[in-house]
Amino acid sequence: xxxxxxxxxxxxxxxxxxxxxxxxxxxxxxxxxxxxxxxxxxxxxxxxxxxxxxxxxxxxxxxxxxxxxxxxxxxxxxxxxxxxxxxxxxxxxxxxxxxxxxxxxxxxxxxxxxxx
Length: 116
Description:
By secondary structure, the chain is mainly α. The protein has one domain (2-115): 3-Layer(aba) Sandwich (Rossmann fold). Helices cover 49% and strands 9% of the residues. It has helices at 2-5, 26-33, 66-79, 81-95, 100-115, and strands at residues 12-14, 38-41, 57-59. Strands 1-2-3 form a three-stranded parallel beta sheet, with helices on both faces. Helix 2 crosses helix 4. It is globular and about 50 Å long. The protein starts with a helix and ends with a helix.
């Protein structure tokens, strides 16, 4: 079901506050794989694949007014539909680095290096 909905979305908003609960941020990466750029909180787990203004948007959830920061980020992300569309294209390309074959290849390369 999500596979049908996400590609039609302009933005995937995922304002997680789970400082220690998010291990990877899979939901945002799934949206990216569908070409939908995410708007995420500034948790460490999103830094590997969400690049501010390029593959998605990030807001400061730790600041004095996280609601206002989220609203400002939403406004920025929705202000230019063309920019959001381009971010979705870049997000989709960035998500490919986390496919099964790519991740398995990275593990195998790491294992080879450890064995040498």
